[in-house]
Amino acid sequence: MQDAVLAMLAKEPSHGYELHARLRRSLGPLGESMNRGQIYVTLARLERAGLVTSEREDGLPERPERKVHALTPAGQQRVTAWLAEVGWPKPDLAEFHLKLAAAAAGRLADPVELIAAQRRELLRRLREAQQAALAEPAEPGPAEPGPAESGPAGPGAGLLLEGVMLRLRADLRWLDACERAWSRADDEIEGG
Amino acid sequence: MNGSSAAAVVTRGLVKQHGQGHGGVRAVDEIDLEVPQGQTLAVMGPSGCGKSTLLHLLGGLERPDGGEVWLAGRRIDTLSERALARMRRRSVGFVFQGFHLMEELTAAENVELPALLAGRSRRQARRRAGRLLDQVGLTARARHLPSQLSGGQRQRVAVARALVNDPLVVLADEPTGNLDTAATHDVLRIFGELRSAGQTFVIVTHDERVAATADRLISMRDGMFVDDLRMAAARPRGLGGLIGLGD
Protein backbone atom coordinates (compact mmCIF):
# COMPACT_ATOMS: atom_id res chain seq x y z
CA MET A 1 0.00 0.00 0.00
CA GLN A 2 2.81 2.43 0.91
CA ASP A 3 4.60 1.75 -2.36
CA ALA A 4 1.42 2.13 -4.39
CA VAL A 5 0.64 5.49 -2.75
CA LEU A 6 4.19 6.70 -3.37
CA ALA A 7 4.08 5.65 -7.00
CA MET A 8 0.84 7.51 -7.54
CA LEU A 9 2.49 10.69 -6.28
CA ALA A 10 5.20 10.34 -8.94
CA LYS A 11 2.77 11.72 -11.52
CA GLU A 12 2.11 15.00 -9.71
CA PRO A 13 1.61 16.35 -6.17
CA SER A 14 -1.85 15.34 -4.98
CA HIS A 15 -4.40 15.62 -2.19
CA GLY A 16 -5.14 12.57 -0.09
CA TYR A 17 -8.71 12.44 -1.37
CA GLU A 18 -7.46 12.37 -4.97
CA LEU A 19 -5.18 9.43 -4.20
CA HIS A 20 -8.07 7.67 -2.49
CA ALA A 21 -10.31 8.21 -5.53
CA ARG A 22 -7.63 6.89 -7.90
CA LEU A 23 -7.09 3.76 -5.80
CA ARG A 24 -10.82 3.16 -5.64
CA ARG A 25 -11.07 3.47 -9.42
CA SER A 26 -8.29 0.92 -9.96
CA LEU A 27 -9.64 -1.57 -7.44
CA GLY A 28 -13.35 -1.22 -8.28
CA PRO A 29 -15.51 -3.41 -6.04
CA LEU A 30 -12.40 -4.80 -4.32
CA GLY A 31 -11.55 -1.35 -2.96
CA GLU A 32 -14.95 -0.59 -1.45
CA SER A 33 -13.79 -1.27 2.09
CA MET A 34 -10.89 1.17 1.82
CA ASN A 35 -11.52 4.51 3.51
CA ARG A 36 -9.79 7.87 3.23
CA GLY A 37 -8.42 7.52 6.75
CA GLN A 38 -6.17 4.66 5.62
CA ILE A 39 -4.65 6.93 2.96
CA TYR A 40 -4.04 9.74 5.46
CA VAL A 41 -2.38 7.30 7.88
CA THR A 42 -0.17 5.98 5.07
CA LEU A 43 0.77 9.50 3.97
CA ALA A 44 1.66 10.47 7.55
CA ARG A 45 3.96 7.44 7.82
CA LEU A 46 5.61 8.22 4.50
CA GLU A 47 6.14 11.79 5.63
CA ARG A 48 7.78 10.67 8.88
CA ALA A 49 10.06 8.40 6.83
CA GLY A 50 11.15 11.39 4.74
CA LEU A 51 9.70 10.04 1.51
CA VAL A 52 6.89 12.58 1.19
CA THR A 53 6.45 16.27 1.97
CA SER A 54 3.20 18.06 2.53
CA GLU A 55 2.12 21.67 2.08
CA ARG A 56 -1.00 23.32 3.37
CA GLU A 57 -2.96 24.81 0.49
CA ASP A 58 -3.87 28.50 0.84
CA GLY A 59 -7.26 30.05 0.40
CA LEU A 60 -9.41 27.17 1.53
CA PRO A 61 -10.41 28.09 5.07
CA GLU A 62 -13.34 25.67 5.06
CA ARG A 63 -10.94 22.70 4.72
CA PRO A 64 -7.97 23.41 6.96
CA GLU A 65 -6.75 19.81 6.70
CA ARG A 66 -6.42 19.92 2.95
CA LYS A 67 -2.76 19.24 2.26
CA VAL A 68 -0.93 18.68 -1.00
CA HIS A 69 1.57 15.82 -0.86
CA ALA A 70 4.68 15.46 -3.03
CA LEU A 71 7.58 13.03 -3.33
CA THR A 72 10.99 13.89 -1.85
CA PRO A 73 14.11 12.77 -3.78
CA ALA A 74 14.30 9.75 -1.44
CA GLY A 75 10.67 9.01 -2.31
CA GLN A 76 11.49 9.17 -6.04
CA GLN A 77 14.30 6.66 -5.52
CA ARG A 78 12.05 4.30 -3.62
CA VAL A 79 9.45 4.40 -6.44
CA THR A 80 12.15 3.58 -9.01
CA ALA A 81 13.34 0.67 -6.87
CA TRP A 82 9.77 -0.62 -6.39
CA LEU A 83 9.09 -0.61 -10.13
CA ALA A 84 12.30 -2.58 -10.76
CA GLU A 85 11.51 -5.11 -8.03
CA VAL A 86 10.41 -8.59 -9.14
CA GLY A 87 8.49 -10.54 -6.54
CA TRP A 88 6.07 -13.38 -6.10
CA PRO A 89 3.48 -12.93 -3.38
CA LYS A 90 3.89 -16.21 -1.56
CA PRO A 91 0.78 -18.19 -0.76
CA ASP A 92 0.72 -19.98 2.60
CA LEU A 93 1.02 -23.46 1.17
CA ALA A 94 3.79 -24.64 3.45
CA GLU A 95 1.79 -23.74 6.54
CA PHE A 96 -1.22 -25.74 5.38
CA HIS A 97 0.99 -28.64 4.31
CA LEU A 98 2.55 -28.72 7.79
CA LYS A 99 -0.86 -28.41 9.43
CA LEU A 100 -2.00 -31.59 7.68
CA ALA A 101 1.17 -33.44 8.61
CA ALA A 102 0.91 -32.37 12.27
CA ALA A 103 -2.80 -33.20 12.44
CA ALA A 104 -2.17 -36.71 11.10
CA ALA A 105 0.96 -37.40 13.15
CA GLY A 106 -0.63 -36.37 16.44
CA ARG A 107 -4.08 -37.76 15.52
CA LEU A 108 -5.38 -34.24 16.27
CA ALA A 109 -7.75 -34.11 13.30
CA ASP A 110 -8.51 -35.92 10.07
CA PRO A 111 -6.43 -34.28 7.31
CA VAL A 112 -9.11 -35.08 4.73
CA GLU A 113 -11.62 -33.14 6.85
CA LEU A 114 -9.24 -30.20 7.15
CA ILE A 115 -8.80 -30.22 3.38
CA ALA A 116 -12.57 -30.27 2.86
CA ALA A 117 -13.03 -27.31 5.20
CA GLN A 118 -10.29 -25.36 3.40
CA ARG A 119 -11.83 -26.20 0.05
CA ARG A 120 -15.23 -24.89 1.16
CA GLU A 121 -13.67 -21.62 2.30
CA LEU A 122 -11.84 -21.15 -1.02
CA LEU A 123 -15.01 -21.96 -2.94
CA ARG A 124 -16.88 -19.31 -0.98
CA ARG A 125 -14.20 -16.77 -1.86
CA LEU A 126 -14.26 -17.85 -5.48
CA ARG A 127 -18.02 -17.37 -5.47
CA GLU A 128 -17.62 -13.80 -4.18
CA ALA A 129 -14.97 -13.03 -6.79
CA GLN A 130 -17.05 -14.65 -9.54
CA GLN A 131 -20.13 -12.65 -8.61
CA ALA A 132 -18.09 -9.44 -8.61
CA ALA A 133 -16.51 -10.34 -11.96
CA LEU A 134 -19.91 -10.98 -13.53
CA ALA A 135 -21.01 -7.54 -12.35
CA GLU A 136 -18.02 -5.92 -14.09
CA PRO A 137 -18.22 -4.88 -17.77
CA ALA A 138 -17.98 -7.90 -20.11
CA GLU A 139 -15.00 -6.48 -22.01
CA PRO A 140 -12.55 -5.16 -19.44
CA GLY A 141 -11.86 -1.88 -21.16
CA PRO A 142 -10.16 1.15 -19.65
CA ALA A 143 -11.57 2.29 -16.33
CA GLU A 144 -13.51 5.52 -16.57
CA PRO A 145 -11.13 8.43 -16.37
CA GLY A 146 -12.03 10.76 -13.55
CA PRO A 147 -11.78 14.54 -13.75
CA ALA A 148 -8.31 14.53 -12.17
CA GLU A 149 -7.12 11.84 -14.57
CA SER A 150 -5.42 12.77 -17.82
CA GLY A 151 -3.21 9.80 -18.75
CA PRO A 152 -4.45 6.32 -19.63
CA ALA A 153 -6.28 4.71 -16.69
CA GLY A 154 -5.69 1.12 -17.85
CA PRO A 155 -7.87 -1.94 -17.39
CA GLY A 156 -10.31 -1.97 -14.51
CA ALA A 157 -10.93 -4.21 -11.53
CA GLY A 158 -12.14 -7.07 -13.77
CA LEU A 159 -8.52 -7.82 -14.57
CA LEU A 160 -7.59 -7.89 -10.90
CA LEU A 161 -10.53 -10.19 -10.19
CA GLU A 162 -9.35 -12.52 -12.94
CA GLY A 163 -5.99 -12.78 -11.18
CA VAL A 164 -7.66 -13.43 -7.83
CA MET A 165 -9.76 -16.19 -9.39
CA LEU A 166 -6.84 -17.83 -11.17
CA ARG A 167 -4.98 -18.09 -7.87
CA LEU A 168 -8.01 -19.47 -6.05
CA ARG A 169 -8.49 -22.06 -8.78
CA ALA A 170 -4.84 -23.07 -8.58
CA ASP A 171 -5.21 -23.47 -4.81
CA LEU A 172 -8.36 -25.55 -5.28
CA ARG A 173 -6.52 -27.88 -7.65
CA TRP A 174 -3.72 -28.26 -5.18
CA LEU A 175 -6.31 -29.14 -2.51
CA ASP A 176 -7.62 -31.86 -4.84
CA ALA A 177 -4.09 -33.25 -5.00
CA CYS A 178 -3.85 -33.03 -1.19
CA GLU A 179 -7.14 -34.85 -0.86
CA ARG A 180 -6.06 -37.68 -3.16
CA ALA A 181 -2.74 -38.09 -1.37
CA TRP A 182 -4.16 -38.01 2.17
CA SER A 183 -7.09 -40.30 1.27
CA ARG A 184 -4.56 -42.79 -0.08
CA ALA A 185 -2.48 -42.49 3.09
CA ASP A 186 -5.67 -43.18 5.05
CA ASP A 187 -6.50 -46.27 3.02
CA GLU A 188 -2.99 -47.63 3.52
CA ILE A 189 -3.22 -47.21 7.29
CA GLU A 190 -6.67 -48.78 7.44
CA GLY A 191 -5.69 -51.57 5.09
CA GLY A 192 -2.64 -52.36 7.23
CA MET B 1 -47.03 -38.94 -7.07
CA ASN B 2 -44.84 -39.47 -4.05
CA GLY B 3 -43.84 -37.37 -1.05
CA SER B 4 -41.18 -35.47 -3.00
CA SER B 5 -43.38 -34.27 -5.82
CA ALA B 6 -42.38 -30.65 -5.08
CA ALA B 7 -38.76 -31.34 -6.03
CA ALA B 8 -37.72 -31.01 -9.67
CA VAL B 9 -35.38 -34.01 -9.49
CA VAL B 10 -35.32 -36.90 -7.04
CA THR B 11 -33.29 -40.10 -7.07
CA ARG B 12 -33.46 -42.99 -4.61
CA GLY B 13 -30.75 -45.63 -4.35
CA LEU B 14 -29.66 -44.93 -7.92
CA VAL B 15 -27.19 -47.47 -9.34
CA LYS B 16 -25.48 -47.73 -12.71
CA GLN B 17 -23.05 -50.54 -13.37
CA HIS B 18 -20.44 -50.51 -16.13
CA GLY B 19 -19.31 -54.03 -17.03
CA GLN B 20 -20.51 -57.33 -15.56
CA GLY B 21 -19.75 -59.47 -12.52
CA HIS B 22 -16.58 -58.99 -10.52
CA GLY B 23 -14.96 -56.88 -13.25
CA GLY B 24 -17.91 -54.49 -13.14
CA VAL B 25 -17.63 -51.00 -11.70
CA ARG B 26 -20.44 -49.02 -10.15
CA ALA B 27 -20.27 -45.69 -11.99
CA VAL B 28 -23.16 -44.50 -9.82
CA ASP B 29 -23.41 -46.19 -6.44
CA GLU B 30 -26.65 -45.84 -4.47
CA ILE B 31 -27.16 -42.12 -4.97
CA ASP B 32 -29.98 -40.37 -3.11
CA LEU B 33 -30.54 -36.86 -4.38
CA GLU B 34 -33.19 -34.17 -4.20
CA VAL B 35 -33.02 -30.95 -6.22
CA PRO B 36 -35.82 -28.52 -5.34
CA GLN B 37 -37.44 -26.43 -8.03
CA GLY B 38 -35.32 -23.35 -8.78
CA GLN B 39 -32.09 -24.69 -7.27
CA THR B 40 -28.77 -24.87 -9.11
CA LEU B 41 -26.79 -27.96 -8.21
CA ALA B 42 -23.19 -28.39 -9.35
CA VAL B 43 -21.48 -31.78 -9.31
CA MET B 44 -17.69 -31.86 -9.35
CA GLY B 45 -15.21 -34.69 -9.34
CA PRO B 46 -12.32 -36.22 -11.26
CA SER B 47 -12.79 -37.84 -14.67
CA GLY B 48 -14.48 -41.20 -14.30
CA CYS B 49 -16.10 -40.44 -10.94
CA GLY B 50 -19.55 -41.03 -12.42
CA LYS B 51 -20.79 -37.47 -12.65
CA SER B 52 -21.62 -37.55 -16.35
CA THR B 53 -23.33 -40.94 -15.95
CA LEU B 54 -25.41 -39.44 -13.13
CA LEU B 55 -26.46 -36.60 -15.43
CA HIS B 56 -27.42 -39.06 -18.18
CA LEU B 57 -29.55 -41.03 -15.71
CA LEU B 58 -31.31 -37.85 -14.54
CA GLY B 59 -32.13 -36.90 -18.11
CA GLY B 60 -33.23 -40.36 -19.20
CA LEU B 61 -30.35 -40.74 -21.65
CA GLU B 62 -29.31 -43.92 -19.85
CA ARG B 63 -31.32 -46.34 -17.77
CA PRO B 64 -30.29 -47.21 -14.22
CA ASP B 65 -29.50 -50.76 -13.07
CA GLY B 66 -31.17 -50.01 -9.77
CA GLY B 67 -33.07 -47.34 -7.88
CA GLU B 68 -35.47 -44.68 -9.05
CA VAL B 69 -35.43 -41.34 -10.89
CA TRP B 70 -38.30 -38.88 -10.49
CA LEU B 71 -38.79 -35.63 -12.40
CA ALA B 72 -41.42 -33.31 -10.93
CA GLY B 73 -43.13 -36.19 -9.16
CA ARG B 74 -43.12 -38.53 -12.16
CA ARG B 75 -41.04 -41.68 -12.12
CA ILE B 76 -39.08 -41.87 -15.38
CA ASP B 77 -36.86 -44.95 -15.09
CA THR B 78 -39.81 -47.27 -15.69
CA LEU B 79 -41.15 -45.43 -18.76
CA SER B 80 -41.24 -47.06 -22.19
CA GLU B 81 -38.66 -45.90 -24.71
CA ARG B 82 -41.27 -43.87 -26.52
CA ALA B 83 -42.57 -42.18 -23.38
CA LEU B 84 -39.01 -41.53 -22.21
CA ALA B 85 -38.10 -39.85 -25.50
CA ARG B 86 -41.18 -37.63 -25.23
CA MET B 87 -40.33 -36.75 -21.62
CA ARG B 88 -36.75 -35.82 -22.63
CA ARG B 89 -37.96 -33.56 -25.42
CA ARG B 90 -40.48 -31.73 -23.30
CA SER B 91 -39.08 -31.65 -19.79
CA VAL B 92 -35.29 -31.68 -20.03
CA GLY B 93 -32.91 -29.20 -21.64
CA PHE B 94 -29.42 -30.49 -22.36
CA VAL B 95 -26.29 -28.38 -22.73
CA PHE B 96 -23.08 -30.22 -23.65
CA GLN B 97 -19.42 -29.25 -23.77
CA GLY B 98 -19.28 -29.90 -27.52
CA PHE B 99 -22.47 -27.84 -28.23
CA HIS B 100 -24.01 -30.66 -30.38
CA LEU B 101 -25.57 -28.25 -32.86
CA MET B 102 -26.77 -29.36 -36.30
CA GLU B 103 -24.11 -27.93 -38.61
CA GLU B 104 -26.39 -27.60 -41.64
CA LEU B 105 -29.06 -25.61 -39.76
CA THR B 106 -28.88 -21.91 -38.85
CA ALA B 107 -28.72 -20.78 -35.23
CA ALA B 108 -32.47 -20.00 -35.28
CA GLU B 109 -33.33 -23.36 -36.87
CA ASN B 110 -31.26 -25.20 -34.27
CA VAL B 111 -33.25 -23.49 -31.52
CA GLU B 112 -36.60 -24.11 -33.25
CA LEU B 113 -36.00 -27.80 -33.90
CA PRO B 114 -36.81 -29.23 -30.43
CA ALA B 115 -39.98 -27.11 -30.31
CA LEU B 116 -41.12 -28.55 -33.66
CA LEU B 117 -40.27 -32.07 -32.50
CA ALA B 118 -42.38 -31.47 -29.39
CA GLY B 119 -45.35 -30.65 -31.60
CA ARG B 120 -45.40 -26.86 -31.60
CA SER B 121 -46.45 -25.01 -34.71
CA ARG B 122 -43.80 -23.47 -36.96
CA ARG B 123 -44.99 -20.02 -35.95
CA GLN B 124 -44.87 -20.75 -32.23
CA ALA B 125 -41.42 -22.28 -32.57
CA ARG B 126 -40.10 -19.31 -34.54
CA ARG B 127 -41.46 -16.79 -32.08
CA ARG B 128 -40.09 -18.63 -29.07
CA ALA B 129 -36.66 -19.11 -30.73
CA GLY B 130 -36.53 -15.40 -31.59
CA ARG B 131 -37.17 -14.44 -27.99
CA LEU B 132 -34.53 -16.83 -26.68
CA LEU B 133 -31.87 -15.75 -29.19
CA ASP B 134 -32.56 -12.20 -28.09
CA GLN B 135 -32.14 -13.25 -24.46
CA VAL B 136 -28.71 -14.77 -25.17
CA GLY B 137 -27.69 -11.73 -27.22
CA LEU B 138 -27.61 -13.40 -30.65
CA THR B 139 -30.47 -11.81 -32.57
CA ALA B 140 -27.98 -10.49 -35.13
CA ARG B 141 -26.59 -14.01 -35.71
CA ALA B 142 -29.89 -15.88 -35.99
CA ARG B 143 -29.29 -16.76 -39.65
CA HIS B 144 -25.67 -17.81 -39.22
CA LEU B 145 -24.57 -21.42 -39.43
CA PRO B 146 -22.75 -22.84 -36.39
CA SER B 147 -19.49 -22.82 -38.37
CA GLN B 148 -19.82 -19.03 -38.68
CA LEU B 149 -20.08 -18.58 -34.90
CA SER B 150 -17.45 -18.50 -32.15
CA GLY B 151 -17.41 -21.20 -29.47
CA GLY B 152 -19.07 -18.90 -26.98
CA GLN B 153 -21.81 -17.98 -29.45
CA ARG B 154 -22.42 -21.65 -30.29
CA GLN B 155 -22.81 -22.47 -26.64
CA ARG B 156 -25.30 -19.60 -26.25
CA VAL B 157 -27.29 -21.07 -29.17
CA ALA B 158 -27.18 -24.43 -27.38
CA VAL B 159 -28.48 -22.79 -24.19
CA ALA B 160 -31.33 -21.17 -26.13
CA ARG B 161 -32.14 -24.53 -27.71
CA ALA B 162 -32.16 -26.21 -24.29
CA LEU B 163 -34.77 -23.71 -23.12
CA VAL B 164 -37.12 -23.71 -26.08
CA ASN B 165 -39.61 -26.15 -24.56
CA ASP B 166 -39.57 -24.53 -21.10
CA PRO B 167 -37.87 -27.52 -19.52
CA LEU B 168 -38.39 -28.56 -15.95
CA VAL B 169 -34.65 -28.83 -15.54
CA VAL B 170 -31.56 -27.89 -17.55
CA LEU B 171 -28.83 -30.55 -17.40
CA ALA B 172 -25.44 -29.20 -18.39
CA ASP B 173 -22.30 -31.32 -18.90
CA GLU B 174 -19.15 -29.15 -18.81
CA PRO B 175 -20.99 -26.17 -20.36
CA THR B 176 -17.87 -23.99 -20.27
CA GLY B 177 -15.36 -26.73 -21.05
CA ASN B 178 -14.36 -25.31 -24.44
CA LEU B 179 -14.80 -21.61 -23.70
CA ASP B 180 -12.43 -18.75 -22.90
CA THR B 181 -12.95 -16.46 -19.90
CA ALA B 182 -15.17 -13.91 -21.64
CA ALA B 183 -17.42 -16.60 -23.14
CA THR B 184 -17.56 -18.41 -19.78
CA HIS B 185 -18.78 -15.19 -18.19
CA ASP B 186 -21.41 -14.78 -20.92
CA VAL B 187 -22.76 -18.26 -20.22
CA LEU B 188 -22.68 -17.75 -16.44
CA ARG B 189 -24.52 -14.42 -16.81
CA ILE B 190 -27.24 -16.10 -18.85
CA PHE B 191 -27.49 -18.95 -16.33
CA GLY B 192 -27.76 -16.33 -13.58
CA GLU B 193 -30.67 -14.60 -15.33
CA LEU B 194 -32.44 -17.91 -15.86
CA ARG B 195 -31.93 -18.85 -12.21
CA SER B 196 -33.47 -15.56 -11.14
CA ALA B 197 -36.47 -16.54 -13.26
CA GLY B 198 -36.72 -19.84 -11.34
CA GLN B 199 -35.00 -22.27 -13.73
CA THR B 200 -33.63 -25.45 -12.13
CA PHE B 201 -30.10 -26.54 -13.13
CA VAL B 202 -27.92 -29.58 -12.60
CA ILE B 203 -24.42 -28.82 -13.85
CA VAL B 204 -21.55 -31.28 -14.06
CA THR B 205 -18.28 -29.39 -14.26
CA HIS B 206 -14.53 -29.31 -13.78
CA ASP B 207 -14.62 -25.52 -13.78
CA GLU B 208 -14.46 -24.19 -10.23
CA ARG B 209 -15.89 -20.86 -11.40
CA VAL B 210 -19.07 -22.55 -12.59
CA ALA B 211 -19.30 -24.65 -9.44
CA ALA B 212 -18.81 -21.60 -7.23
CA THR B 213 -21.95 -19.95 -8.65
CA ALA B 214 -24.22 -22.88 -7.68
CA ASP B 215 -26.55 -23.00 -4.67
CA ARG B 216 -25.27 -26.42 -3.75
CA LEU B 217 -22.05 -28.16 -4.66
CA ILE B 218 -21.61 -31.91 -4.46
CA SER B 219 -18.23 -33.62 -4.85
CA MET B 220 -18.27 -37.12 -6.30
CA ARG B 221 -15.68 -39.93 -6.10
CA ASP B 222 -16.08 -43.51 -7.35
CA GLY B 223 -19.80 -43.15 -7.93
CA MET B 224 -20.56 -41.71 -4.49
CA PHE B 225 -21.06 -38.27 -2.97
CA VAL B 226 -18.15 -37.37 -0.68
CA ASP B 227 -18.90 -33.73 0.10
CA ASP B 228 -22.00 -31.60 0.05
CA LEU B 229 -21.66 -27.82 0.33
CA ARG B 230 -24.58 -25.43 0.45
CA MET B 231 -23.52 -21.95 -0.51
CA ALA B 232 -25.02 -18.92 1.17
CA ALA B 233 -25.25 -15.52 -0.43
CA ALA B 234 -22.07 -13.44 -0.40
CA ARG B 235 -20.95 -12.51 3.09
CA PRO B 236 -21.27 -8.93 4.27
CA ARG B 237 -17.57 -8.44 5.04
CA GLY B 238 -16.98 -7.24 1.49
CA LEU B 239 -14.63 -8.03 -1.32
CA GLY B 240 -11.57 -6.29 0.15
CA GLY B 241 -10.76 -9.57 1.92
CA LEU B 242 -9.97 -11.16 -1.44
CA ILE B 243 -6.89 -8.99 -1.87
CA GLY B 244 -5.94 -8.58 1.77
CA LEU B 245 -7.68 -5.23 2.40
CA GLY B 246 -9.50 -5.38 5.69
CA ASP B 247 -9.44 -9.18 5.85
From TrEMBL, chain A:
One of its GO terms (molecular function) is DNA binding. Residues 130-156 are annotated as: Disordered. Keywords: DNA-binding. Residues 5-79 form the Transcription regulator PadR N-terminal domain. Residues 95-180 form the Transcription regulator PadR C-terminal domain. Residues 146-156 have a biased composition (Low complexity). This is DNA-binding PadR family transcriptional regulator. It comes from Nonomuraea fuscirosea.
From TrEMBL, chain B:
It comes from the Bacteria. Keywords: ATP-binding, Nucleotide-binding, Transport. Coiled coil: none annotated. One of its GO terms (molecular function) is ATP binding. SMART domains: AAA (SM00382). One of its GO terms (cellular component) is plasma membrane. Residues 9-247 form the ABC transporter domain. This is Putative ABC transport system ATP-binding protein. It comes from Nonomuraea fuscirosea.
